[in-house]
Design a protein that fits this description.
The protein is of the alpha/beta class. The protein has two domains: 23-124 and 251-270, Rossmann fold (3-Layer(aba) Sandwich), CATH 3.40.50.10860; 126-248, NAD(P)-binding Rossmann-like Domain (Rossmann fold, 3-Layer(aba) Sandwich), CATH 3.40.50.720. The protein has ten helices and eleven strands. Strand 9 and strand 10 (223-225) form a beta hairpin. It is globular.
């Protein structure tokens, strides 16, 4: 039985961070990351962004949701990242809309999503961009490839579907309520799962030799667990990504790349 290879995106993330430092070339770059200090995963991810930002030459300033009003009137108009979970009283989509597309580091503002749909985007939702980069790394050109996307969120499932179609892939999109999930995934060359349901993808969902990109992240007994049942797909899947070090590090690097693009674009406009 062929052993399944587990892919880590750490090396790809480090390459992107090095390229960002070169692009910024000492220019001023700052952003704010808003997180709930009571959420350990959000705090850990925030710290990762701070550390990676320092490597790239971007100063990432941490803030709480109680500081949102001050950020709205920030004179520097720096890009902002909102980490989940947010307090129940906070409407994150409304905040992103209020800040405007130029401060939307996650590319979730209606204007930025509209540009993605039209294929004229400057920035892309970072997890979707990371998944696309990993897909191209594993499969090469995606034109003509059959890809099943499990999950239909505006952060991952929908934007990655658009990106795949723009690359010429044939895409099926399903989700955790799809009645016969295996029928949508079992003959795909690549399955991208972002449903947030631990163990959702098992051996009977995957064609022999197919690749899997696991984006699902669910806290289970103090650990982050993906959508893929690794034991069930071992030896059947050609490559599966590691959780959380598969797409995760590259997502952080893509998020910082969005920040650099927004900042450099503004500086060009001002010159």
């Amino acid at each position: 039985m062929t052993k399944t290879r587990v892919f880590s995106g750490i090396a790809m993330a480090q390459d992107k961070i090095a390229n960002l430092r070169e692009q910024l070339d000492g220019r001023t770059a700052q952003c704010h990351v808003v997180r709930d200090p009571a959420s350990a995963p959000a705090v850990a991810y925030s710290r990762r962004l701070v550390d990676l930002g320092a490597q790239a030459g971007i100063r990432v300033v941490e803030a709480g949701y109680d500081e949102v009003q001050a950020l709205r009137t920030d004179v520097a108009q720096a890009p902002v990242i909102f980490l989940h979970p947010a307090p129940p009283v906070i409407d994150v989509p409304a905040l992103i809309t209020a800040l405007g597309p130029g401060r939307d580091a996650e590319a979730l503002h209606p204007v930025n999503l509209g540009k993605l749909l039209l294929g004229v985007q400057r920035i892309v939702p970072p997890t979707a961009q990371a998944a696309l980069l990993v897909a191209e790394h594993l499969l090469g050109p995606l034109e003509g490839k059959c890809v099943a996307v499990v999950g239909a969120s505006e952060r991952v499932g929908l934007p990655v579907t658009i990106l795949l179609i723009q690359r010429g892939a044939t895409v099926r999109i399903a989700h955790k309520r799809t009645r016969n999930l295996a029928a949508e995934t079992c003959d795909a060359e690549l399955v991208i799962s972002a449903a947030g349901v631990p163990g959702l993808i098992s051996g009977h969902h995957i064609a022999a030799g197919a690749h899997v990109i696991d984006i699902g992240l669910t806290p289970v007994e103090g650990k982050l667990v993906g959508d893929v049942d690794l034991a069930a797909v071992e030896g059947k899947v050609g490559v599966t990504t590691h959780v959380p070090d598969g797409v995760g590090p590259l997502t952080a690097a893509c998020l910082l790349e969005n920040i650099a693009v927004l900042i450099l674009h503004d500086q060009v406009d001002e010159s």
